[in-house]
Amino acid sequence: MPIEHGAEKVHGISDAMVKDAPTLDDFITVQHADKFRNSNVLVVAHNAKFDYPMFAPYCAKATQLCTMNLGRKFYPAAPSYKLGVLAKICGVQKVPTHRALDDVETSFALLQHFATANSLSISELIELEQAVDPNAVMPFGKHKGTKIVDLPKDYAIWLISTLDKDDWVVRQLRNTPDLYIYIGIRTEAEMTDKQMPNWQPTGLIQRAFKLAAKKHATQANKGSGIPYLTHLLAVSSLVIEHGGTEEQAAAALLHDVLEDTKTSYKRVKRTTNKNIADMVKACSSKKFGEEHSDPWIVKKVYLEKLNDKKPNDPSLLVALSDKVHNAERTANEYPKTADEQTKYWSKFNAGYDIQKLWYTSLYESLNAKGTLPPALLERLQVAIKILFN
Ligand SMILES: [Mn+2]
């Protein structure tokens, strides 16, 4: 039963039973291909925002007309906008037969009722449904019954961030002058001037933390019972504070896991991803064990690897953060008198000279990349001055 309105037709579906019914795809693309592919189709439904996206992709053009939204317009005091309730109010209620098409026919009867009772054409109904109504009231929630234009700003903003952007309530809010909002164009952050983070955890950093916490569980900082995890968290924090990505932050949590625990590259990659595993690998100096009792050899290999890295290598920020945290922690516990300082360095298997060469070479190499945060490089430089001047 098509209703003419301009170039558009509304196609009522009748007497098809679900059991033998074609699939939506078959119905649209095979049996009625011409009606959908070449037409401006009006999708009439109760709560049409759910039905519309199913039909729209098959149509040359699709327009939605929601009988629930029209119900809100014409019956602002209705206790509910469920199909059955509206049908009863409008006197178009059908005797339920539990056929699949009962709802379709009821929705269609509602549409006919709205059109005839208000002497409106389908085009006028579409226009009306899409128009913003200054008298519209909240249909649900703690402010049910309040005029939408009078909603508290915080609540309105919460609604916008929670509801679908095509939701009727959101559409009513769109042009509410006091709320200065154009939903879907501005984000919540822009509307409230709230600063949003550069990135939000996707699960990578959580998985990296879990693996790091497990693998380093029995390790403590040298000379204290403080869990080694503090170093990993501090390095990750420095990475994030200086603009690092989630992957870099995750790599920071795991930067010592290959070197200091029994964990394989494969395991890191499986738990996180290849980018992170590669960064972790890049931050590790290969273990030489007994073959090289000279601690400088290990450091030299690390420095050579560092020098070879491209300036945009994402592992560099992790490496710099690691060195900053180590150097600052050492500088904080560094004694004031010359005697105590000599004693201090004797505790290390790599003494003063090697440590000095190590840190100054690191600083020079990292600084020469020209891509790392100057504030972080400066912190390394300051700590080096305290330790070796
Ligand atoms: Mn470290």
From TrEMBL:
Do you know which CDD domains this protein is assigned to?
Answer: DEDDh
Domain Exonuclease, first and last residues per copy: 1-120
Q: Which GO terms describe its molecular function?
A: guanosine-3',5'-bis(diphosphate) 3'-diphosphatase activity; nucleic acid binding
Protein name, per record: Unannotated protein
Q: Which organism is it from?
A: freshwater metagenome
